[in-house]
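Researcher: Quick sanity check before group meeting.
Model: Go ahead. Protein one:
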Amino acid sequence: MSDAPEANRYEARFEGESTVAGFAQYIRTAELVAFVHTEVSPAYEGRGVGAALARAALDAARAANLLVLPTCPFFAGWIARHPEYQDLVYQSRSRVSD
């Protein structure tokens, strides 16, 4: 898995192959990274590509001290099933004025 910042996405490739097996599209700011779309090539489905993308991308966000906004249903579901990453999720804190 590698970050392709020029394409705003993380890409997964199997060793020795040039074909992109899957990618996780993101929008990054100085404080958070929003994961907006994940796609796995049909030829690679069922081989753990999506999970590897999610884990690596979330580990990178943690290392960079970024919060995560999982607007992509795959990322939202993956984080829900992996509580060790829930501390990364951005929580909107609206203000209530008196």
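Researcher: Fine. The other one?
Model: Protein two, sequence then structure:
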Amino acid sequence: MIKRSLRTLGALTVLALVSACSTTAFEPTMDFDDNFDFSDAKSIAPQPVDRVGLGAINISDMQVSRIDGALADELTRRGFKVVDDNADADLYLTWHLVTEERTDVRTYNSMSYYNCWRCGPSVSDVSVRQYTQGTFIVDMIDPERSRSVWRSVLESRLQSNPDPASAESAARRAEAAQAILAEFPPK
């Protein structure tokens, strides 16, 4: 159990805002309430991450801080004011992360090359790999109705042992924040 928790924690560290495999481009999906007027939204208050649920204990406070920072930096870059006080916010930002252990099984057919070129019996090779799939979800909440008015979801296969303090991880967090907020506000 501890080993699995450490592996999940390591995967989450890579994610640290979905710092996923460097070969995969981020392709989020987005949905929004078309009855909400986003033109009035100028200030956004990030909300604290739920630290009670079982999934929340797999992510450290340092990781939460890095994710919050990457999202805040991207919102600021896009012209929004990130505020600490909910009373000053036009929208609340919440996020959560879901991880799932998955198995990738692939079968390859190859020929035997012992005596001549492609004249042997076919041989099947099987590749089995365990990996962690991460789903990062960001919601913008209307404070007046306490309802989500915008959501973006980013899924990615996570690396197993990232260095969360590295420049590469910081760049991937920034890239993921840019991708997940790319269609905010909706047009």
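Researcher: One line on it for the slide.
Model: The chain is about 25% helix and 35% strand.
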